[in-house]
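Sequence, structure tokens reproduced for absentees:
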Amino acid sequence: MQPRAGLRNCWNLLGYGSNASFRNYMDRLLEATRRAEQRHFWFRGFRAFVRPLVAVAVAGHAAPRILDCGCGTGANLVMLGEYGRSFGFDISREGLNFAREYGQARIAHASITHIPFRDASFDLVTAFDVLYSLTEKQEAAAAQEIFRVLRPGGSLIINVAALQILRGSHSVFGSELRRSTRPRLRALLSRYGFDVQRLTYTNFVLFPLMLTVRTWQRVMGLATPEETGGDIAVPAPVLNETLSALLHVEAAALRRIDMPIGSSMLCVARRPPAR
């Protein structure tokens, strides 16, 4: 959900430039996320994808310190807290209020381009669906800041939207400036000193459906921010449970193989150990 400047750039390009409109829109987005994130199949699948990666990243650390960049509503901080002492920050004060409702206290109001923590102070840093809302300059600053706060040998887990062919009305709702590819994300992280250890697409099982729907949306014309509405609709229970089950099957497969295509990408990288 940050930095605000990156999202505002996207907002201005779409013709909705006032600060008040932007704040109202971001509040709606966070409120919609808060209502859906415990039940919606996408969020369930995402947590199933991420949990094994977090467990491996903190293995061997007696008391791991974990930082979630762009912690949003704080739901992921709750998950990360199962593996160590979790900290977070977000550019949205409304998001931080939701995080407090989840019982999260180690949170700060800040941007990923200026992380308010000391050098080399975390064993694991996460950035879930943050980079796609940044300009290239901000993205570079974010990579450098994450490298700075990671301890030598520490890990980074990133999730980003993938493949421009999947741009649709949800991209407007989520304020995407780009959808990435494996070569692009690998090049970005390598440029700023990270060793990329794993890079896989996710939501492979949903790809055919998403490609069909989002291609149709582009043909018909993408919705404006106002037209996307203020909610993330949870499908009917039978469909929601079916899609959740399919994503959990994919999560089990991801423990052994990488997915060749999908709507998102998960990357695990490391700051090289000190010599």
